[in-house]
Specification:
Mean pLDDT: 88
Order of helices and strands: EHHHEEEEEEEHEHEHEHHEHEHH
Bound molecules: S-adenosyl-L-homocysteine, iron/sulfur cluster
CATH architecture of the largest domain: Alpha-Beta Barrel
Oligomer: single chain
Length: 409
């Protein structure tokens, strides 16, 4: 979908990436589309619909990639499917472990573009940080991803594929035989309790609202009760402020919203978050006030990166409070210590400064926790993502891949 007032510079691939063997990859397709493909391949409409529903369940709810494992589909039907279709995954180029338990994967699309996803385990939750684009067109001055030259939108399959890969890696697919397609509960004893992957944040590489349709279609599969079945309350989409798409995001996706505010004056925000020159602060805050579904129970998160002598004064903190109150926003503030990367022109504010800033906002009755940086040692923290392929030589990548294999046994 074109974004009003903007010529979208990013090519969006078709929903089905052509494969050399002529088979069609079903990953990322909705029920209806799967049924249409089955019908086009020769099944009658009724059979196509039923098979579509069954395959959808195995694909997204069970994480099955082999048609042979789909036990409620007739034995003779399974080779017929396998001749025409596949269920793929993004290719893993490299996976890295941080000393704090954070994991980062370098992934590759079928046409050779590399992107990253990050898993952040905590005591009470596990958060997957998902990418929406290869690179980003927006060039925020403190963000490493913004310096990547190559940009392409990820397809729904490449986006939902990240969540599915994470479940593969964490061994989190429900076990047991199929309980019947109409049951919400399956007999595998699968529940949200004790799950490693509990939350998703669209905070990896790219601006998700510049790839709206694909992000929406992927998140629909994640939220579908017969799909990955994750509640929209456990999903957060972060935007740098693509104002015209925010209301659509609330209406058509309905997930929690995070906004990369980072500055409270036009001058500073124009400089560090350049999209501000197109959609200014007032417009952005009004769009937050109008965000469908925002309430005191479901607050909007304002992300604020702490940059030394740039946006971190007492005055900045007080202006932030004033703006939140002026627009009557149900808001919380997330203070992010700046994560450095080679060539960055900023420094992180001192811990005392961050504490003082947090206290001012907190004393005004607004929650303002400081986010603990995670996975800095493997460049997995906020704003550090830039595909390793652009930093490492091929030989280094091969060596790391070998080490990974050895470590996995
Ligand atoms: N493009 C989206 C989502 C991805 S970035 C957005 O900008 O909101 C996820 C968060 O990390 C954003 O708030 C972003 O501003 C922040 N970030 C980017 N670079 C950073 C850095 N070097 N240190 C700390 N946070 C950073
Ligand atoms: Fe893009 Fe977000 Fe990085 Fe800005 S902060 S360059 S919008 S990924």
């Amino acid at each position: 979908m074109p974004i009003p007032g903007l010529v979208d510079p990013v090519p969006t691939p078709r929903d089905i990436t052509p494969r050399e063997d002529g088979r069609v990859d079903l990953l990322g397709l909705p029920r209806q589309r799967i049924a249409e493909l089955f019908e086009a391949a020769g099944l009658d409409a009724k059979a196509a619909k039923l098979r579509g529903k069954q395959v959808f369940h195995w694909l997204y709810h069970r994480g099955v990639t082999d048609f042979e494992a789909m036990t409620d589909i007739a034995k003779t039907m399974r080779p017929w499917l396998a001749e025409r279709f596949v269920i793929g995954r993004p290719e893993v180029v490299l996976s890295q472990h941080s000393s704090d338990g954070t994991r980062k994967w370098l992934l590759k699309t079928a046409d050779g573009h590399e992107f990253e996803m990050v898993f952040i385990p905590d005591a009470d939750r596990g958060t997957l940080c998902v990418s929406s684009q290869v690179g980003c067109t927006l060039n925020c001055r403190f963000c490493h991803t913004g310096t990547m030259r190559l940009v392409r939108n990820l397809t729904p399959g490449e986006i939902v594929g990240q969540v599915m890969l994470a479940r593969d890696a964490l061994g989190e697919w429900p076990k047991g035989s199929m309980a019947g397609l109409d049951d919400d509960e399956d007999e595998g004893g699968y529940s949200a309790d004790g799950r490693l992957l509990t939350n998703i944040v669209m905070m990896g590489m790219g601006e998700p609202l510049y790839n709206f349709d694909n992000v929406r279609d992927a998140l629909k599969l994640v939220m579908d009760g017969d799909g990955l079945a994750l509640s929209k309350r456990r999903i957060t989409l972060s935007t740098s402020g693509v104002v015209p798409m925010m209301v659509k995001c609330g209406e058509e996706i309905g997930v929690n919203l995070a906004v990369s505010l980072h500055a409270v004056s036009k001058d500073v925000r124009d400089e560090i978050v350049p999209i501000n020159r197109k959609y200014g602060l007032e417009e952005l805050l009004q769009a937050c006030a109008d965000y469908p579904g925002a309430s005191n129970a479901r607050r909007i998160t304002f992300e604020y990166v702490m940059l030394k002598d740039k946006n971190d004064s007492d005055e900045d903190a007080r202006e932030l409070v004033r703006l939140i109150k002026q627009f009557k926003l149900p808001a919380k503030v997330n203070l992010i210590p700046f994560n450095p990367w080679p060539g960055a022109i900023y420094e992180c504010s001192s811990p005392e400064r961050i504490k003082r800033f947090s206290d001012i906002v907190f004393e005004a009755g607004i929650s303002a926790p400081v986010r603990t940086p995670r996975g800095r040692d493997i460049d997995a923290a906020c704003g550090q993502l830039k595909t390793a392929a652009q930093k490492l030589s091929r030989a280094e990548l091969d060596r790391l891949a070998e080490e990974k294999q050895a470590a996995l046994g």
